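User: Earlier you gave me the apo prediction for this protein. Now I'd like the version with IXZ bound, so I can compare the two side by side. Same sequence as before, with the ligand SMILES added.
Assistant: Got it. Here's the input I'm using:
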Amino acid sequence: ATGSAAAEPIDESDQAYITPVTIGTPPQTLELDVDTGSSDLWVFSSHTPPSQIHGQQIYSPNKSSTAKLLEGHTWSITYGDGSASRGNVYIDNFTVGGLTAEKQAVQCAQQVSASFTRETHVDGLIGLGFSTLNTVSPKSQLTFFDNVKSGLDSPVFTADLKHGAAGTYDFGFVDKAKYSGEITYVPVNPDPGYWAFNSSGYAIGSGKFSASAITGIADTGTSLLYLPTAIVTAYYRQVEGATNSRTYGGYVFPCSSSLPSFTFGVADARITIPSAYINYAPITPGSSTCFGGLQSSSGVGINIFGDVALKAAFVVFNGGSPPTIGWAQK
Ligand SMILES: O=C(CNCc1ccccc1)Nc1scc(-c2ccccc2)c1C(=O)NCc1ccccc1
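And here is the structure of the complex with IXZ:
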């Protein structure tokens, strides 16, 4: 089996991408954020206090003839940015891009933090990290990918995210039409539960490539690219008027500044992020000060190749044994 689903940016800065899914019988449609940086599939639901719902679509298990409460199970997750959610669990049919998991654990939110309430376009998350990270207790649950993997033509899913346009998540196959040249595969360390891999170094603009092993995670759920401070300061040294703002929590610069591109290595392959992707967004709508798409990972504790990096490439998440990750230019 194979599947293919759209990844639509939620705003003009590509802060997150949403993918349509259907849950239950008759099918209820929601739009979820595919998140390779976590492993819980959770949704706004009929169990979410109305005061915490601000335009999101909800899943009502009591309206699904195939929904079954997973008795005595709860979940609770906190993301690195402090956002959080928790609730109970139902088992139901779950379909993405024409692929159905019959008995998917659908985690229903009974509480979401304000930042989720504010994200009116995001009805929940589909965690596609490793199932070891799933927070359901007392028995942790499998991700959608782990549930459908054995039935896929190939145990893979791919991300083709785009800047300011709809991209795709494919399941079970690698679409040659979506990339140019070759895909370079490197090992993944699944122990932390993320898609962790080693980048082989970086270059700023047309500068020389600096070889250095950078361990990071490929995370569709994180908007920006977070790398070691030394790399980030070297980058912004080349940006007129750039400062590291405590007020805004990172590097900002005049929106009119010209930015160098940024290249990262994957083994002997090179992925170049166009400068436009690093001019992330005005700090507030209409401001002439812009926030950088490349930021320091020192406050984060882990290097994260988020959407700013991923949308410059075609990425293969290979769930085989051993797992690997593939990167190609496009
Ligand atoms: O949590 C994730 C993936 N989910 C991101 C997400 C999606 C929707 C809403 C909220 C969050 N990725 C990872 S792995 C490790 C971290 C992390 C980040 C900062 C400190 C400690 C750990 C994060 C994460 O929180 N990503 C989102 C994020 C937000 C702000 C700054 C950095 C990263």
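For your comparison, keep in mind: The mean pLDDT is 98.
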